[in-house]
Amino acid sequence: MAKQKKENNKNTYFPDYVSKNLGKEEKILVAEKVNGWLYWPCVVFMLLFAMAFIPTLFVGTKDAMVVGEIGIMMFGGFAFFCYFSSKAVEMVVTNKRVILKKGIFIHNTDELRLEKVESTNIKKSLFGLILGYGTIVFTGTGNKVIKFEGIDNPQKIKNEIDDIFYKYGK
Description:
The protein has 170 residues and is an alpha+beta fold. It folds into two domains: 3-39 and 84-168, Pleckstrin-homology domain (PH domain)/Phosphotyrosine-binding domain (PTB) (PH-domain like); 40-83. It is 41% helix and 33% strand. The chain contains five helices and nine strands; from the N terminus they run ββαβααββββαββα. The chain has helices at residues 16-20, 40-57, 62-87, 126-131, 154-168, and strands at 3-7, 10-14, 28-32, 89-94, 97-102, 108-113, 117-123, 133-140, 145-152. The radius of gyration is 20 Å and the shape is elongated. Residues 1-12 have low confidence and may be disordered.
């Protein structure tokens, strides 16, 4: 889905969907993906949930084994969902727009033209402070809001985006 490309000895994330739908003379300047720590609480919860069902596999009764198998399949399905949820988000700033794409099979895309962005803010939760991730909130004219959630080192990314706004924006 997403590809890594070496450019100036730096790993740069290139989103597939957005890169295929760029306008004329539009180029990706910042592309971010979701921090993996964002989905760990749901994976840990489901792992504990599955561990509760493992003993039922060894009880010996057919009903207990079926319940155990169902519980473990639910864990696998939810872990699969958490993993692909993190891969289904593309957060991009080009020289013309801020773009947020969510979804694997159905795409929901929010866009905001650079000249319409009024402010960028950073929000961090307690876990975000500890693990180094946060949310960058773009507010545009007409109260349009786009949130880049779960970004590694959001202050660094915000500084890069501010430089883009000064260069290409207003």
